[in-house]
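Deliverable D5.2: sample structural annotation.
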Amino acid sequence: MKFFNKTINRINNQKGFSLVEILLAAVLGAVLFGVAVMIFTKQETMLREQGSGATVRGSGRIMMSELTKQLRLAGYGIPVDNVFTTATSVSVTFRSNTDNVSSLTTNAMLVAQDTVNLVSVAGFSVGQNVWVYGVSGDNNEAAPYEIFDVDSGTQELTFTAGVANEHSATTTMVNPFHLYTYTWDSANNRVTKSVDGGTANVFLEGISGLTFVYRDSAGTDLGAAVSAANLPNIRRIEIRLNMRDTENPHSEVSLSSDVTIRNMS
């Protein structure tokens, strides 16, 4: 009986946590939990942004490479003075013989003559625009001519209009070409491409900014809108490209490339 009473007294003398202590522990636990969640969320966001940035950067490099490759075609098979037709900070239009078709003439041409015989008319077709120019750079026509007829039997082309200059036989080149226009569509964050004045189709998407900078052989900036007098002086085009993940606005990356117009050197 005496032992039982001592046990009861010992139990009665034990003290538990007070309400204040329980509340303090709960608050402290909530704070620690909140800090843990904040750190986890921040780390997750950083990892997501890094992954998104890497993806955008990779896509940007591919797009920059494709745009650079296209601009390097400018002026192929075209006299230097007639390569670019317009050049602004957001759009560029140039001529290029991307079909890789050309032929020398076999007869002389007089002023206003609208027919010419070639070594070969293979690759030429009705409706094509061609440039007529001297191999040595003399007597270049100031404007292109449209082919009205192609005679594969006599190897003769007929233009819709007569030429403006006289041209010697065997030293005059006739090259067909295409007219390419690349434009940044800021309203839709994309770059469009049109050929020969046709429909502007999507060339690159996900572009948040695009700027073309034109320079002459000395590296001088020719301005945001290159004048007609300076178009033949373009020798380099700097491309400044910005891209952003539409689901993560903090993942914007900037890329640049300096393109030398080799066909005009």
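Annotation notes: Helices lie at 2-13, 19-71. The mean pLDDT is 85.
The annotation will be released with the project's public dataset once the embargo ends.
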